[in-house]
Amino acid sequence: MREGNRLYLLDTNVLMHDPTSLFRFEEHDIFLPMVVLEELDAAKKGMTEVARNVRQVSRFLGQLMNGAHDLEAGLELKMPEGLDIRIGAGRLYFQTEQDDHDEHPALLRAKADNEILHAAIKLRAEQPEREIVLVSKDINLRIKAAIHGIPAEDYHNDRALDDMSLLYSGLTTLTNDFWDRYAIDDSWSRAGKTFYRLERAEGDDWHPNQCLTLTGENGMEALVREVTGKHFVLQVSEDFRHGPKSVWGINARNPEQNFALSLLMDPEIDFVTLLGTAGTGKTLLTLAAGLAQTLDEQIYREIIMTRATVSVGDEIGYLPGTEEEKMTPWMGALTDNLEVLTESDEHGGDWGRAVTNDLLTSRIKIRSLNFMRGRTFLNRFLIIDEAQNVTPKQMKTLITRAGPGTKIVCLGNIEQIDTPYLTETTSGLTFAVDRFKHWMHSGHITLKRGERSRLADFASEAL
Questions:
Q1: How far apart are CA 54 and CA 41, in angstroms?
Q2: Buried (b) or exposed (e) across 7-26, using 16+ Cβ within 10 A?
Q3: 182, 144: one domain
Q4: 246 lies in a domain?
Q5: Of the four, 59, 144, 338, 450, which is 20 to 30 A from 18 by CA?
Q6: Are residues 146 and 220 part of one domain?
Q7: Are 300 and 422 contained in the same domain?
Q8: Distance CA 58, CA 64 (A)
């Protein structure tokens, strides 16, 4: 093996999580123990995301082999077709000798993690001048590696961000010297909305549809509508806090909710992401905007609501009923919020309940993520709830379902991830927020203030 560069020993879960990880270590070499290949072979069957990733890894390895090779010299890591990855001159090595556990009796138990760890120990003994690094998403294996003096790292290339504090919030609070720093180049009104074109200052960082608040005498709430090299355009935000400007009977209760309704009601914005803890109004505001634009303004034909269930990617199950009936247990948030939105007065009676049922069945469709692949939605208002449990690959699959005239809204709380192998920095919702922040037809806002009840607000702080 070559000297000088690092040798990364990959755990099976890294390949299961990202099949392209083979090509993401630049000029450094990669080592695959035999037990990793055995685990990949055992996990290749099925229709789950992990099984599909494993089969892709096998295809990559087959392309690299491409006939007989001198495995002792390693395989050249060539760029596979269809991948756009900056790849170095690293090589891929396989374990070609049987392990001898006599020197480490604690690793005698036939466990895959111990086999991988023993392979790392043996490599260190054979190549003491070279840096051997074990890469695994299993924190327990990394701890055991540290006990044996083997450097171990998590796999970082799948992260959208290094730190969640860097995640784009969508809302910026301006300082009082804002109007002194930025000179107004032009101002105008169109369709009852006020716009300002301002000259950019050195070092500023504006994003399309970024939400801005300014308190004080010259206070305002505005949206960044256009960003160029020299200028940016602000639009004074509409006020949805009072009755005449309500959305399907719902008024905003804080600045973040007001910005959320502005983004949701704007037909020029095709993709909206709303983050926030429980009770901040994500689902209620989204459904209100969807109903207003579907039933009143008739911009969209219907509302489609889906969510990532805990068993996302697997079969729904053998419950009786249609797709919608099987998804009903996961859609409690939909029914709860519909009761608020379709609440009738005391004289409504059976008619009011009939309206609720009619809205649910005729214009709001419940769909499972399992059957999204291959579909195209035309003029739909698509809501993806619990989007923090969606992987980046699944998020891409969902967003690319959008046809002409479709708006997609992703809702989620990045602090409540239930899916195994996903973290705050690797969630598909985090990827969507980070990758779409520069696109002029997308918007994002993080809701921070709970508006559910005084009991819920106190519980979230005290418990």
A1: 8
A2: bbbbbbbbbbbbbbbbbbbe
A3: no
A4: no
A5: 144
A6: no
A7: yes
A8: 10
For 424, residues 6+ apart whose C-beta sits below 8 A from its C-beta are 164, 414, 415, 417, 430
Among 128, 153, 178, the domain-final residue is 153
Residues 116, 118, 122, CA angle at the centre, nearest 5°?
A: 120
Whether residue 290 is found in the same domain as residue 431: yes
CA–CA separation, 309 and 311 (whole Å) = 5
pTM for the whole thing?
0.83
Instruction: Take residue 417 and report the two structure tokens written for it.
Output: 């991830």
- β-pair partners for 195: 188, 235
| Domain extent for 338 | 264-462
Per-residue confidence of the chain (463 residues) as pLDDT tens digits? 555 678 999 999 999 988 999 988 888 999 999 999 999 999 999 888 889 999 999 999 998 888 666 788 888 888 777 677 777 778 999 988 876 655 555 555 558 899 999 999 999 999 999 999 999 999 999 999 999 999 999 998 888 887 888 899 999 999 888 988 998 999 999 999 999 999 998 889 999 999 999 987 778 899 999 999 999 999 999 999 987 889 988 999 999 999 999 999 999 999 999 999 888 999 999 999 999 999 889 999 999 988 876 444 445 555 566 656 666 665 667 777 877 777 644 445 666 666 666 766 678 888 877 777 778 999 999 999 999 999 888 899 899 999 999 999 999 999 888 887 788 999 999 999 999 999 999 999 999 887 778 887 788 778 7
Gap between the Cα atoms of 89 and 196, Å rounded: 52
**Which residues, 6+ apart, have CB-to-CB distance to 252 below 8 Å?**
240, 241, 258, 260, 261, 285
**DSSP one-letter string for 265-296:** T-TT--EEEEEE-TTS-HHHHHHHHHHIIIII
Does residue 242 lie within any of the structural domains? Answer: no
The C-alpha angle 36, 39, 43, rounded to 5 degrees, equals 140
The b-or-e profile of 434-455 (16+ CB within 10 A means b, else e) is: bebbeeeebbbbbbeebbeeee
CATH number at residue 278: 3.40.50.300
